[in-house]
Amino acid sequence: MRVLDAAFWSPGSSRHALAGPLGFSASKAKALVAGLIDQGLLEEAGTQPSQGGRPAETLRLHHGLGLLLGVDIGVTSLTVAVLRPDLTLLAQHSEDIDVRRQGPGVVLARAAALMRELLARCKGRAEQVLGIGVGVPGPVNFEAGQLVSPPLMPDWDRFSIRDFLRDDYRAPVFVDNDVNLMALGELWRLQRALPNFIVVKIGTGIGCGIVCHGSVYRGATGSAGDVGHISVDHEGPRCHCGNRGCVEAMAAGPAIVRMATEAAEAGESPVLAAALAERGSLAAEDVGSASRAGDAAANRILQHAGHLVGQMLAAVVNFFNPSHVLLGGGITQVGPLFLAAVRQSVYQRSLALSTRQLEVQYAPLGAQGGVVGAGALAMSETLRVRGVAP
Amino acid sequence: MRVLDAAFWSPGSSRHALAGPLGFSASKAKALVAGLIDQGLLEEAGTQPSQGGRPAETLRLHHGLGLLLGVDIGVTSLTVAVLRPDLTLLAQHSEDIDVRRQGPGVVLARAAALMRELLARCKGRAEQVLGIGVGVPGPVNFEAGQLVSPPLMPDWDRFSIRDFLRDDYRAPVFVDNDVNLMALGELWRLQRALPNFIVVKIGTGIGCGIVCHGSVYRGATGSAGDVGHISVDHEGPRCHCGNRGCVEAMAAGPAIVRMATEAAEAGESPVLAAALAERGSLAAEDVGSASRAGDAAANRILQHAGHLVGQMLAAVVNFFNPSHVLLGGGITQVGPLFLAAVRQSVYQRSLALSTRQLEVQYAPLGAQGGVVGAGALAMSETLRVRGVAP
């Protein structure tokens, strides 16, 4: 039954490609797949481009298997999506929240309402839900489905997200850190072809999802990837964690907004000053649009933040030697200058051997990364708990 | 045949404990083990303490299988050992070398001579050698058995260590980075019970071996663990790599010796001044013995170096969340003050969640770590290439 797991991770594969690596003979593979199609678990999904011989029929998890719900809770945003078993997005909705001020009851009630609305919008029923994946912006006890001592959202400590969301559905609920889910989503998109890479989310905070030896690595106590509190300046400002010069305190969204507000107030940027006067406060996107309009102060701020993030990443790259560093989160909307500064700093400060084949780029799944990852968690863990995956 | 691999990793296990996790029934396990004993591959090694029932007979790889050769090449030391298949040390010899001045031909010829001498000393013959493991102080292309662009020893770049040593024996030669081998050795000592930890070697340079998801992690291009060039002071001295404030340039053996020499010359330490006058130069061990004698300058130097190493490790701990940080290399001989300073700095600068269960200690295998790891590499890879391990 590992064929179903393989079909999830490698959609669009032929019978042979799915069953071959599992050690089955061609005739056994054919019989297995035929059985799974008969049971309504797999279905054919068109033919592969022919390379001379008869074109091979490709396979995917059967759409009739059911639906997945993906919930991506960021510090300041909530996204909910309904997905097919092959992670096609059927419906999706995002809105602003603030987990630093809103407790788990409020945020999760809103998530549950959106799940019902979106399911109804695509004519799905609660009984059709196969699995639910939830990403949250803090360290997670994966087995318990709870946040553990999340620095930014103390009200959520040990609140059972799983129990809260499970009530409406018979489906299992899986909870993981939001950046781990972005990493899982990219791993799925890559069909597991890259075994060692990281995804860095830069938004209100800075966190990192790690893929090691081909699977998501959560660390000895579930807090791996907590790179926001790596120090980049021992004389830097004090962070809420108590230490000085944490990269999160100096280069994440709020730090960029603070630098932009200072620049606007100091008369260094007419564009930012106008935006500040108009709305009374600035957002990271204002710095992005000012930068794209050629504003020198905005450019300087984004380059400074990018250099600091790159300095932190240089340490990570020296230690972990990943093949790819994928950047995600709100910061990816500020334009190319930030990415260029990150790259420059990483390549300058990491050892040549670690960067020779290193790619630093924005995460290809972009803003969808969180919910696609949540869907990937829901499907892969559902297959696992039902006993069909390793 | 995975039973042999299990017997290597879990010496002293009973039939049941060896074969059980591999999914064999009790009767099948019994038959398998009996067959392996008949073939001279496994042997009985005494009984386990009884817990009520009949005491279980423990098993190990048969001593008659052959011998392993382990070679640990550090920047300034060469250690060669002959080991049994269960990694019992039969003979061992260490001497000073300097790979920065001596090319691969000279060092490897000496290693080969020592291999012959030590084999003869324990009445072994070349034909009995099952496998050879070699650790080298630089980044290694594991498949090719070659160093790749080693910063400290450019003469060794792409020299085929494997071909050089293979000539005398029919056994396979495996080459890895010295710190990866220390990590492999500790993983073997722990019987693979800890899946996520790091070993940090502090000697002439600083490097790190990583165990992730239960096996040694080498990175996308084999340079994972190259933590010596993580910056701990952006205004710090320039390192040979071109960057500023690398922890290796500020806190490894040569930096400790430099600080000690300055202290001796500035009249800050009568003990160090006497040692310097006596021999014309100082070594890291002089700082250790001065520190143990209560010398204030030596204490200050070791604390300073320990704090810098701890600062680098704090970044690594935040990112990787290991359960253990094991310190090895020459620095472990300088006494407890260095370790205390490392600990203090790691616990202060890492997030509470990452350090709640973190252990920072000297590596239990100590100076044997390199050759035990080389033996573990030789045995595990020999089992793998012969088709008996995963």
From TrEMBL, chains A, B:
Keywords: Kinase, Transferase
Record carries keyword Repeat: no
Database matches in SUPFAM superfamilies: Actin-like ATPase domain
Top-rank taxon, per record: Bacteria
Name of the protein described by the UniProt record: Glucokinase-like ROK family protein
Molecular function via GO: kinase activity
Organism: Pseudorhodoferax soli
TM stretches of this protein: none
